[in-house]
Amino acid sequence: MDAIRIRGGRPLKGTVSVSGAKNAALPILCATLLSEGESFVRNVPALRDIETSVALLEFLGRKSVLGPTTVRVGADTGTSRPEAPYELVKQMRASVLVLGPLLARFGRAKVSLPGGCAIGARPIDQHLKGLEAMGAEIKLEHGYVVARGPNGGRLKGADFCFDIATVTGTENLMMAAALARGRTTLVNCAREPEVEELARVLNKMGASIQGAGTDEILIEGKESLHPFDHAIIADRVEAGTFMVAAAATGGDVLVEHAPVEHLEGFLAKLRRAGCVLTREEHGLRVVRSGPILPVDITTAPYPGFPTDMQAQFMVLMCLCNGRAVITETIFENRFMHVSELLRMGANIDVHSNTAIVNGVPALSGASVMATDLRASASLVIAGLTASDETEVRRVYHLDRGYEHIEQKLAGLGADIERVKGVAG
Ligand code: EPU
Fold this sequence. Notes:
- It is a single chain.
- The protein is an alpha/beta fold.
- Helices cover 31% and strands 24% of the residues.
- It has helices spanning 22-31, 48-59, 86-89, 99-106, 125-133, 167-178, 193-204, 236-248, 264-272, 310-318, 336-343, 373-385, 396-401, 405-410, and strands spanning 3-7, 13-17, 39-42, 64-66, 71-73, 83-84, 108-112, 137-141, 144-148, 159-161, 183-187, 208-210, 216-220, 229-231, 252-256, 276-280, 283-287, 297-298, 323-327, 347-351, 354-358, 367-369, 389-393, 415-419.
- It has a 4-stranded mixed β-sheet. It has a 4-stranded mixed β-sheet with strand order 2-15-17-16. The protein has a 4-stranded mixed β-sheet with strand order 4-5-3-14, covered by helices on one side.
- Helix 5 (125-133) packs parallel to helix 6 (167-178), helix 8 (236-248) runs parallel beside helix 10 (310-318) and helix 8 (236-248) runs parallel beside helix 12 (373-385).
- The chain is elongated.
- The N and C termini lie close together (6 Å).
- The model has no long low-confidence stretch (mean pLDDT 95).
- Uridine-diphosphate-2(N-acetylglucosaminyl) butyric acid is lined by residues 23, 26, 94, 120, 122-127, 164, 166-169, 190, 194, 307-308, 330-331, 373-374, 401.
- The site of uridine-diphosphate-2(N-acetylglucosaminyl) butyric acid has 24 residues, from helix 1, helix 5, helix 6 and helix 12.
């Protein structure tokens, strides 16, 4: 297994470029299933989750070509099995995003249940209830969701209110409703920029979707949709991760293509922590030279502080000159980085979903590992701040969500390398 080895203690300096957004690319790749023709998805990051999506599309009869930043999803070969097997879904929960498009287009779908994951149980009950409201008959059989349209035919438009705002749930239902018969109103929707981006693509395909980005979305179902060519938005979480890395190391970094408009809740906290943020022509410059000030955060659905930035921000708070309280409200088990940060000399007390972080002057290097993507990113940042050596193991988590992370950080002056064949 690969590991990332870091000899930290160097302030990051220079310019880093943000890649396309993983969590926008995944639903958009699934949206290609809604039309028969060949589509192009551009500005796609080179990530393991993208490779898994391409494998899934191929399994579904869509021969695809994965270039450095573009995926060409081939036309329907007519051999489609509307089925997502466990082997692919277990590698990536977002595979469940094929359920809505397959059911809408083929009137049936069989998709493995994703099961629990490191950060929480993550049920998909809201996806299923929404599809049922649209007339689907759904059974759970041998670990699979087996769904059929009403009498094996097209879904019907419906009014559906989510019990809890869910990002992929909103995306799945939006895609299903785009090909349903009649009008669908979705209430209490997730407002994340990735939902809005998917709606933009669906509208390019000929769908009629209004209100994405607010909590109420109206969709007029169409008979058919056409293929598309679309370049996806920049990754707000990757951008935020580099910003925290700059701040934690006392650096000066221009984060090119940072989607500043999607980061406001997070940037307000970064500023309060003592960073100077300046908008420049091609991105946002982050400079931190004074002490790191304590800032409390509570994760919340967009536009609140993103759960996907909580672990990274906690590292910054580990080095603050006071005490910060971090509360996680989205996922029940998203403090897995804490035990590893403690091994690096952090002072953190966890009480249920709240972490009380008492700042320490410095962290020390150690061999660490994490069991999810953002926790792994936080350990890389911790390693960048420690003056001795840190080895972050199980890099495959990072490879799911950060394109060439060690190369990008090395470009900012970090002493960082990937080492092969380290025990997991
Ligand atoms: N939930 C339910 N029932 C459902 C769906 C969700 O109870 O049917 C709960 C979840 O368990 C969670 C909350 O609702 O407590 C919100 O989960 P959501 O469904 O919004 O999460 P998701 O769609 O599975 C996406 C991102 C995650 C990100 C969350 C929250 C993608 C592919 N994934 O997940 O990204 O953390 O939204 O913003 O878009 C990551 O990139 O590292 C990552 C985990």
